[in-house]
Design brief:
Helix content is 15%, strand content 38%. By secondary structure, the chain is mainly beta. Strands 1, 2, 3, 4, 5, 6 and 7 form a 7-stranded mixed sheet that branches. The radius of gyration is 15 Å and the shape is globular. The chain binds isopentyl pyrophosphate and magnesium ion (3 copies).
Length: 142
């Protein structure tokens, strides 16, 4: 019997601007297809969490970020073929006036800012559950 593949490691970034968070609707990808998720992607060999966060955000939105901090991690055994550890980071825009661009339109329908209390209905399940459970990514959250 061949060994099960190792779980994937994904970095997801809460980019915070005023009281909003950046979400993008994913196209028909292997993970979280057609749901709203945070910018982010697979941790690559030798990267720190912060390096991966900055790289994936730049690759996907063109945004430069700073104050990159580790928040939490979730272990998501989503199906017989998808087991994903998601490491959640938060960050702020290096330039508050910079606007997100949809750099990878084949992977994402576009980026938009959402209030924590009004995230998209079709938010990626594990993320939605975390937020509905009271997780607050903002600094000094009560
Ligand atoms: C959901 C995410 C944290 C893990 C999967 O990342 P992804 O499919 O966006 O991967 P890439 O951005 O690296 O292509
Ligand atoms: Mg990516
Ligand atoms: Mg990605
Ligand atoms: Mg990637």
């Amino acid at each position: 019997m061949s060994p099960s593949p190792a779980p994937e490691i994904g970095i997801a970034v809460f980019i915070l601007k005023d009281n909003k968070i950046l979400f993008g609707r994913r196209r028909s990808l292997s993970i979280a297809a057609h749901t709203y998720a945070l910018p982010g992607g697979h941790l690559e060999f030798g990267e720190s969490f912060e390096e991966c966060a900055a790289r994936e955000v730049k690759e996907e939105t063109g945004l430069d970020i700073k104050n990159i901090e580790l928040l939490t991690a979730t272990n998501n055994h989503l199906s017989d073929t998808v087991h994903l550890v998601i490491i959640y980071m938060r960050a702020h825009l290096s330039d508050p006036d910079q606007t997100p661009q949809n750099i990878e339109p084949d992977k994402c329908e576009g980026w938009d800012w959402y209030d924590l209390n009004n995230v998209p209905e079709q938010t990626f399940g594990p993320l939605r559950a975390m937020l509905q459970g009271g997780f607050n990514p903002f600094p000094n959250a009560s």
